[in-house]
Amino acid sequence: MGGTIAEAPAGARVMDRLVAGRLIDWAVGSRADEATEERFRRLIDEVAAALAGPDPSPIERLLAETAALGWFALRVHETHSVGGSTSAAGLTLARAERGQRRIDRANRRLSSTLRTPATVRRLAVPAVQLDLARQQLNVAGSRGDRIE
pLDDT of 80-98, one tens digit each? Predict the structure, then answer.
């Protein structure tokens, strides 16, 4: 199951870990323990691996990591919104609208990020050319061109 943050190139791994760490800190707040933080890290890695699919290209792996972080951020925004609405002080209309705008923006970012791998995969489909007169099949793909 390739494609986890730990397997990304060094530069991407540092930034992804930083973003994941900040999101996790924001999600759990001051009551965090190491087990909870590790559970969230594993969850982000599992979502990224599922989105990347089997044998992802480097760009697919990077997009899957970005989508997993976006998915987690959306869930954190939703959790904070629900948490504010169930607090003893309640939720003012202005705060509720601000929270909903944050959720909407996070959802748009996630949707955009999820569309990008589909485009990359569609563009990576090999081009096939059949020459019936010479009985030749030419296949050009993104993972190396070959002629058969």
Answer: 887 766 565 667 788 888 8
Q: Are 79 and 72 in contact (CB under 8 A)?
A: no
Q: Which of 72, 76, 49, 45 is nearest to 61 (CA)?
A: 49
Q: pLDDT digits over 46-67, tens only?
A: 999 999 988 888 888 889 999 9
CA separation for the pair 74, 66 (Å, rounded): 12
User: What is the predicted pLDDT for the residue at 105?
Assistant: 94
Cβ(28)–Cβ(37) below 8 Å: yes
Q: For 114-124, write each residue's pLDDT tens digit.
A: 888 778 777 77
Rg, Å, the chain Cα set: 21
